[in-house]
Specification:
A hairpin with a 3-residue loop joins β1 and β2. The strands form three sheets. Strands 1-2-9-4-7 form a five-stranded antiparallel beta sheet, with no helix packed on it. The chain starts with 24 loop residues before the first strand and ends in an 8-residue tail after the last strand. The chain is mainly beta. The protein contains no helices and ten strands.
Length: 128
């Protein structure tokens, strides 16, 4: 960032990142550089995303509102849940999917590393 003064980013004014939209998920881009991506994400109640990974990028997800479950591992049998004020850390190449078990979720996502932001796969046991 080369700005010489602070800026305010409002979620409803941020651009939608390039690539296909995900039904039930509203993504907005705050920063996109060669080695970092920062965005705001909202998922609907009952959302279950598709299986994917983030290539050579580690992801840090700070949950602002709601409860977010991350499914991963063999046959998708492992999971963890973060609530408002908690952070999920996903290592690069880890196949996973996000699930919103209750009310909608809002989160700030930071991805550090290089390569594609998102790589969709057929299921939890696909090759990363």
């Amino acid at each position: 960032m080369t700005a010489t003064r602070p800026a305010v980013f409002r979620a409803d004014e941020l651009p939608v990142p390039p690539g296909p939209a995900t039904s039930g998920m509203d993504r907005r881009q705050i920063v996109d550089t060669e080695s970092a991506w920062i965005g705001w994400v909202r998922t609907d109640r009952g959302f279950a995303g598709g299986w994917h990974h983030h290539a050579d990028r580690d992801s840090y997800i700070y949950v602002i509102k709601g409860e977010l479950t991350m499914e991963y591992g063999a046959a998708g049998g492992d999971s963890l849940t973060a609530r408002a004020g908690e952070v999920i850390v996903n290592p690069a190449h880890m196949i996973h999917r996000e699930v919103t078990p209750g009310d909608s979720v809002e989160a700030i996502v930071i991805r550090l590393g290089t390569g594609p932001l998102n790589v969709n796969v057929d299921g939890p046991d696909s090759e990363a």
